[in-house]
Amino acid sequence: MERHQWREDGEEGLRYFRAVHHGGRWTISSRLKDEEEWTPHHPIEPDLWRTLRELLWRKYQRKRCPGKQIEQLDKIIEDGAGEDGR
Predict the structure, then answer these.
(1) What does the pLDDT look like over 43-62, one tens digit per residue?
(2) For residue range 58-84, what is the model confidence (pLDDT) as tens digits?
(3) Whole-model pTM?
(4) What pLDDT band is residue 85 in, cutting at 50, 70 and 90?
(5) Element (H or E) spanning 4, and its range?
C-alpha cells in the first residue's frame, strides 16, 4: 500500500487530499483543514487524476515512485478517467 498526499488552497479554504494505491486500485479522499473525517471521491474527477499524475511524476523524477504507477495513471486518464481506479 502506498499513500500520497497533497494540499490545495481553494474557495472553501485549505483542502488536504490523500490518494491510496492498494491492491492495484486507487482511492482518493479529501478533507478541509477544519474537518476531522476524510470524504472519499467516487467517482474520481478527471482533474484529480491529472493532479495525482503530476504529483507522482515529480516523485518519479526524484526516484521516489515507480514508473509503473505513472503508466497506470496515464492509462486511466487516456481511457476517460476510469471511475474505479483500475
Answers:
(1) 999 999 999 999 999 999 99
(2) 999 999 999 999 999 999 999 886 555
(3) 0.87
(4) low
(5) strand 2-10
Torsion sign, CA atoms 53, 57, 63, 64: negative
Q: What is the CA radius of gyration of the chain?
A: 13
CA distance 56 to 11: 25
> Cell numbers 499513500 label which residue?
3
Angle at CA of residue 64, ends 44 and 18, nearest 5°? 30
Give Cβ neighbours of residue 72 (< 8 Å, ≥ 6 apart).
Answer: none
* Position 46, amino acid: P
First to last CA, the chain: 15
